[in-house]
Each structure stands twice: as structure tokens, then as C-alpha cells.
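User: Could you go from structure to sequence for me? I need the amino acid at each position, not a summary. C-alpha cells:
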């Protein structure tokens, strides 16, 4: 459960900060995930078993003005085991339900990627860094932190169940680079995303789609980021099924990629138990900057399943399994293919 932190101005005064305006309200939340993970690459005859200890701690800060506008921000102290101090941008939520994110706002396209069910748990075999396959519906939807994302209120434009986002980010003052080995940096980015929720009989249908476009500072690259995604989920009682697809071009470091990603899955809830199953397939032709996409294809195909059980309030046990098949430049990568499993629990607050 989130705990309310009341930061009063009287406390600030006792610390020698008299005259400081009253503090905003804050909440904190997080979790600790502990378990055991086993991996068995196709290049090995036995499992490698290790402990998994991951934690997360977030602080959310917000206050509402006299005019009814909510101003919110926050920061992360630790994220899945990595010590850090990562501040959020500002989000303004207006009285009509619309909102405006400023600084590190992200992509409007990514905000409308549907959540396709899939196997959970701390499973998976780390892939080789030379495999640049698309790994999510949001692949290629990157942008600079200087920008905004505007989200409409629900039932936008008088259409019941419709919502939309539009975003832009700006980094045109970055220096240009050239050469196949120069690290690329994104410049300006623009994106749009939409979601439509409706009912069909006893089912709730959610459809999401988005498009993201971004330029970069490389004079050698022959591609910019231009990616789209579309997906849908159908929830009928305790059963949810979903599917999504992404395709396009994107750049990263000193590579330019052309690829796609597809995901299908299902989730079934029975009391305190949730069953998850899903499959994904990602691919890409990756080249150094300025080269046509003539190489053999990188790919990663994954099938996974998991079972979650609510042991107590805030405590969930998870058993997960995944099998993955990785190919790098068209050749099977046995060291990065194989099976993995996980048994553990997450304690949240």
C-alpha cells in the first residue's frame, strides 16, 4: 500500500528554511522481487542457476492549484537492483481530464501501444549485442528529453471510448557527424497515438495504434526513425487475448535497422491465480550507417508461460518458463538460444 508523506512547512522552518512555501503531497511505492533463475542455452548440456534479487523504489509528488490544475513529478531511487536517482519531468493535468507532459515526456505513439498478455517472471537468455532485432511494439519510438506530450481527455472529440496523444521533442542543436562508425544522436521527433475502447457483446475491445518519426545527426545514415504499431486486446470475463504488430526503420549507436515485431498472448484469471501465455517474433536487417539493408536477417522468436499466485496482500508468487530461438546475420546463435525458468515472489508496497 502506498504511504502518504505529509511534508509540512513547519518542518521546513525547524530546519532553517522559514518562509518556504508549504510542501506538496507525496507518495511512495515499490517492490522487492526475490527468486531463482535457471538458464540452459542450446550450447550447453546443463542449467546455470542463479539468484535474482531486484528492487524498486519510486516517489511521486503532486499538488493541485486553486484553479484545479494538478502538477505532478517524481523520482526513482532504485530500479530493479540498480542504484540510481532518476527524476521525472512535469505533468500538468487539467480540469477537463487532458494532460500535458513536459521534459522526458516520451512518445505519443508508445503511450498507445496495447498491453499484449505474455509469460512473466525473470526469465530469458541475454542476447548478443550484435543482434538488433526489434524487441517490442515500441521499438524505434525514441526521442530527446526536451519536448512535450499532450493527451486528450477520455471520449475525445465527442467519440465515446476514443483518446489520443501528440508529442514532439527537439534536439536540432546537436552537432552533425559523418562516417559509418560515428555514434548517431536523434534530433527532432514527432509522434501521434490513438486508442479506441468499445464493447462487443460481453467483451471489451481495445484497439491502439501509433506512428513515430525522428531525424538524426548523421550525414552518412540513409534512414531516419519511422515506425508504426497497431494492436488490440479483447477482454471477456476472466479471459484476455491480444495481438500487436510493429514495423519500420530506426537507428541506434552506429547502426541503421529495418525490421518488425509481432506479439500474441492470452491471460486467464481464476481467483488468486493468473495464467499467462504468449509468443513474440522480432527481426531486423542491420547495417552500419549509410549501407543498404542487404545483410542476412537477425531474429528472436520467444514462447513463454507463467503462473502468478496472490499469496497475501502485496505478495505474489510467480513460476515462469521461456524458450527462445536467436539468429544473428541469418545464422543460428546457440549460445543465445535455449530455455530458462524462474521461481520467486514479489513483495510490493
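Assistant: Here is the amino acid at each position, in order:
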Amino acid at each position: 500500500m502506498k504511504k502518504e508523506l505529509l511534508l509540512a512547512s513547519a518542518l521546513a522552518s525547524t530546519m532553517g528554511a522559514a518562509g518556504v512555501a508549504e510542501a506538496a503531497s507525496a507518495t511512495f511505492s515499490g517492490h522487492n522481487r526475490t527468486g531463482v533463475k535457471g538458464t540452459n542455452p542450446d550450447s550447453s548440456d546443463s542449467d546455470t542457476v542463479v539468484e535474482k534479487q531486484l528492487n524498486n523504489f519510486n516517489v511521486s509528488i503532486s499538488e493541485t492549484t486553486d484553479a484545479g490544475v494538478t502538477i505532478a513529478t517524481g523520482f526513482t531511487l532504485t530500479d530493479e537492483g540498480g542504484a540510481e536517482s532518476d527524476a521525472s519531468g512535469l505533468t500538468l493535468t487539467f480540469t477537463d481530464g487532458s494532460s500535458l507532459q513536459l521534459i522526458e515526456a516520451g512518445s505519443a505513439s508508445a503511450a498507445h501501444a496495447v498491453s499484449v498478455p505474455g509469460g512473466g517472471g525473470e526469465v530469458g537468455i541475454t542476447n548478443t549485442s550484435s543482434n538488433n532485432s526489434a524487441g517490442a511494439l515500441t521499438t524505434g519510438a525514441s526521442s530527446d528529453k526536451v519536448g512535450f506530450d499532450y493527451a486528450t481527455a477520455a471520449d475525445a472529440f465527442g467519440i465515446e471510448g476514443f483518446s489520443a496523444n501528440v508529442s514532439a521533442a527537439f534536439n536540432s542543436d546537436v552537432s552533425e557527424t559523418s562516417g559509418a562508425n560515428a555514434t548517431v544522436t536523434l534530433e527532432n521527433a514527432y509522434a501521434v497515438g490513438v486508442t479506441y475502447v468499445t464493447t462487443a457483446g460481453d467483451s471489451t475491445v481495445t484497439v491502439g495504434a501509433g506512428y513515430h518519426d525522428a531525424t538524426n545527426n548523421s550525414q552518412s545514415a540513409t534512414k531516419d526513425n519511422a515506425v508504426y504499431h497497431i494492436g488490440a486486446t479483447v477482454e471477456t470475463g476472466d479471459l484476455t487475448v491480444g495481438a500487436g504488430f510493429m514495423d519500420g526503420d530506426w537507428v541506434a549507436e552506429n547502426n541503421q535497422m529495418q525490421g518488425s515485431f509481432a506479439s500474441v498472448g492470452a491471460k486467464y484469471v481464476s481467483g488468486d491465480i493468473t495464467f499467462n501465455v504468449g509468443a513474440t517474433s522480432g527481426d531486423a536487417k542491420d547495417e552500419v550507417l549509410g549501407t543498404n539493408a542487404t545483410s542476412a536477417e537477425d531474429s528472436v522468436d520467444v514462447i513463454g508461460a507463467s503462473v502468478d499466485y496472490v499469496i497475501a496482500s502485496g505478495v505474489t508468487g510467480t513460476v515462469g518458463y521461456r524458450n527462445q530461438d536467436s539468429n544473428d546475420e541469418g545464422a543460428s546463435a546457440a549460445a543465445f538460444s535455449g530455455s530458462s525458468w524462474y521461481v520467486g515472489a514479489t513483495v510490493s508496497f
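One structural detail worth keeping in mind: The helical segments are 9-14.
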